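Fold in tokens:
===
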Amino acid sequence: MAASSNLKGIGFALLSMGVFATHDVIIKMLGAHYPSLQVLFFSSLLSFPLVSLILMQERTPGTLRPNRPGWVAARSLCGMMAGVGGFYAFSTLPLAQVYAILFSAPLLITLLSIPILGERVGIHRWLAVALGLCGVLIVLRPGAGQALSLGHLAALMGAACTATAAVITRKLGSSERPLVLLMWPMLGNLLLTGAGLTLNYTPMQLPHLGMAGLIAVLGLTGGFLSILAYRNGEAAIIAPMQYSQMIWATIYGWFVFGETLDRPTLIGAAVIICSGIYIVARERARGSESTSPVTASRVRAESVTAPRSSLILRILTGRGPANH
């Protein structure tokens, strides 16, 4: 692939990560006033008109009945819990800490590809995964004066569920219609978060409802930019651009929320990022396609406000892989 095309892909990827970071900043801003489940419910509800425009482009005949209901149900549950975990973590933790923990998703994908996809992981990737998980412990620093909060557990849940959903999507391949893979998590998410409103609800002001709608717009915009990035550049080159979210987290955290990037978070994030980049470089050197969920994964909690870009691409073009 031409260098100019890769540069264009890198540009789209960096812009996509900036849009997603803004998406997460608004989540954090609303999370200071409303329960995270409520923020997720309204942003998901307001995303339906936009997502419906995409779903109307689906031309593949069929129904919403999945061909492999067990795997689709598992993927839907993981997608729902990833969204819940991500929204709660962004609402309660510093942005940089959330991103550092979510950066462990590609490492978890490597581990989960063994039992779910039957892949073999060599000693080099095992060492990279072990190093990356040590980085997570550095960020969490248990027993070093920082008590683990529900926010940390939510971020870990978001990373684990995002990784599981990515690997299941790879396993399903093209056996399921993109409409099925998009609609079931959306419907389940609305039911789950809607039920949460009965437990804790705070009336939302109109400007805040507008911000919830903006979350939906930014999520889909980031997804489209991600599509453009992967269509213009090589996955092994585009994938590391996701770590630029740490730069956005530092900028937004400093200027908007008065957050500072402490040393353990910086060191831990650097360790995680280095291990993730090593895995991507190792896969590229081996020319492996079997591990494409790792190189093409976008490390953030997937939710209805930010669906997988590969599913959007498949609907709009009627083709394309299911594992971007």
Summary: The chain has a mean pLDDT of 84. The CA atoms of residues 1 and 234 lie 7 Å apart. The chain has one domain: 3-317. DSSP finds 14 helices and no strands in the chain.
